[in-house]
Amino acid sequence: MSGGPAGVVLLTDRWQARRSLVDVVAGAVAGGVRWVVLREKDLPRAERAALAVELRAILAEAGGALVVAGPDPLGGDAVHLPSAGPYPPPRLGLVGRSCHDRAELARLTTEDYATLSPVYPTSTKPGHGPPLRPDGLGALIAASPVPILALGGVQSPDQVTACVEAGAVGVAVLGAVMRADDPVAAAAALTTAARTATATAQARPELPSATTEEER
After folding, report:
1. Which end of the chain has the least Cβ crowding within 10 Å, N or C?
2. Are 170 and 5 in contact (CB under 8 A)?
3. Which is nearest to 48 in space by CA: 76, 23, 82?
């Protein structure tokens, strides 16, 4: 699994979805999403594993990938772990970790990426915070040993842009797509913003390094 999650990453929550979870994910993929994190931890393992198979098929057709929340990859090779553990992380093709501060970032070892949250106030976890805001996000990204996805309260293209400008490789969203009347349009607006902001950041010229007297 080359690289890691970037752009817009969708976290699932069937209780907030306006239609079936499979339909919402399919709509998000049609709108440009290529990474999905399967949550639904309250499901029995067999049901959750069957759902993982169904979502992997949708993503595979678009060249995307499914990440499973928790240490059990459900037949796959990618997981996203909570900040509480397990430590050390399992050896799999892709491992992510939820982080919230410098101390948790400092505990990262072989993880491939991490999320930082909450960036903005979030209705999914009201009272969780305080929000980092883009400035706080950028400061933590500077201290991170791995690429960072911004998570928490990201609802609009402008917020996506601000997170990428702060140094995030992408954003993880839940309600913005799960609760959308039109998941395709919602995902398309966010993924377009992420692509544009990423392209702008990559095109930005680096500051010239200082030259020595010998080089002058």
Report:
1. C
2. yes
3. 76
Neighbours of 119 (CB within 10 A): 28
180 pLDDT higher than 50: yes
CB contact set of 102 (below 8 Å; sequence gap of 6+): 140, 143
| Tens digits of residue pLDDT in 81-99 | 999 999 999 999 999 999 9
| Tokens 């490789």, located at residue | 169
C-alpha span between 123 and 59 (Å, rounded)? 27
Q: Tokens representing 192?
A: 């377009």
DSSP character at residue 174: S
**8 A C-beta contact, residue 22 and residue 58:** yes
Cβ neighbours, 10 Å, residue 87? 11
Query: What Cα–Cα distance (Å) separates residue 84 from each residue in 33, 103, 132, 163, 203?
Result: 28, 12, 20, 25, 37
Does residue 198 contact residue 164 with C-beta atoms inside 8 Å? yes
- Spatial separation of the C-alpha atoms in residues 171 and 119, rounded to whole Å: 10
3-state secondary structure at position 10: strand
